[in-house]
Design brief:
The strands form three sheets. This protein has a five-stranded antiparallel β-sheet. The protein has a two-stranded antiparallel ribbon with strand order 2-3. It contains five helices and nine strands. The chain has 218 residues and is of the alpha+beta class. The longest helix has 14 residues, at 204-217.
C-alpha cells in the first residue's frame, strides 16, 4: 500500500533484560548480567486524505483512499485461516519501506484510526491511523517440515548488538543455551561473530543435549 503522504512520525523501540544476583555487601552493587532482548517495535502515524478527490468529483485528482486503506490496515490484523498443510494460522508479514534507509519487517500489532472529516453523505474523507508493528525473525525458506528442511530447525541473522546469549534467550528463553548455538555452527570464539552472519538454530531438545555436552567438556 502506497501512502499519500510521508508518515507524520516514526518511532522504533527495543528493550533489553538485565538481571543482578543480590549480595550481602552493602558497599558493592551486584554486577548486572545480560539476559536477552525483546522484539523490536515500530510505531507510525499515517494520514489519509480524500478532500481533493471529493472536490474534483473523483476525476483526475485521484482515487479515494481513506476507506480502502483503513480497511486494509484492519484486514492485516486478521489471522489467516489455517492452510491445509500448515501447522498454525499466522498473520500476514508486512514490510514498511521509507526512503533508502528504513526497512522494517514484522506483523501488525495494533491499529488505531481517528476519522477527522466526512463528506455530506457521511463517507470519511480524512483520517489518521496510528499503527504498531512487531519485528519477526528473517528466516529463510525451507526451514519447515513441509518444505524439505529439518523439522524444528530454523536460522537467524546476527543483528547489531546481538550476542549468542541474547539469541539463545530469544529462541529458547534461556541465555545459557548459547553453547549449543556455538556448537551447531562451529564457532570457537563466541565474542567474534560478525553482524550479518547466518546462524543455524537447533531444536530445543537438541540444544539441551548439545549444551550439556559442551558444559561437560568445558
Amino acid at each position: 500500500m502506497r501512502f499519500q503522504f510521508n508518515p507524520e512520525s516514526l518511532s522504533r523501540t527495543k528493550s533489553s533484560q538485565w538481571t543482578a544476583v543480590p549480595n550481602n555487601d552493602p558497599q558493592n552493587q551486584p554486577p548486572p548480567q545480560f539476559a536477552g532482548h525483546g522484539s523490536e517495535q515500530l510505531t507510525a502515524k499515517l494520514l489519509f486524505d480524500d478532500t481533493n478527490v471529493i472536490r474534483a468529483g473523483g476525476g483526475s485528482a485521484g482515487v479515494a483512499q481513506v476507506g480502502p486503506s483503513v480497511n486494509r490496515l484492519f484486514d492485516w490484523l486478521t489471522i489467516a485461516q489455517k492452510e491445509p498443510h500448515g501447522p498454525h494460522p499466522s498473520p500476514p508479514t508486512l514490510r514498511l519501506l521509507w526512503g533508502d534507509s528504513l526497512s522494517f519487517t514484522g506483523v501488525l500489532k495494533n491499529v488505531s484510526v481517528q476519522y477527522l472529516q466526512f463528506s455530506r453523505e457521511g463517507t470519511p474523507i480524512r483520517a489518521t491511523a496510528s499503527i504498531t508493528m512487531q519485528a519477526v525473525p528473517d528466516n529463510p525458506k525451507g526451514t519447515n517440515p513441509t518444505s524439505g528442511g529439518l523439522p524444528g530447525r530454523t536460522s537467524t541473522q546476527v543483528r547489531d548488538g546481538d550476542t549468542l546469549a541474547s539469541i539463545a534467550y530469544e529462541h529458547f528463553g534461556d541465555p545459557n543455551l548459547w553453547r549449543a548455538i556455538a556448537a551447531s555452527n562451529g564457532i570457537d570464539d563466541p565474542t567474534r561473530v560478525p553482524t550479518g552472519t547466518r546462524l543455524l538454530i537447533p531444536r530445543r531438545v537438541d540444544a539441551l543435549t548439545l549444551n550439556d555436552g559442551e558444559a561437560g567438556h568445558g
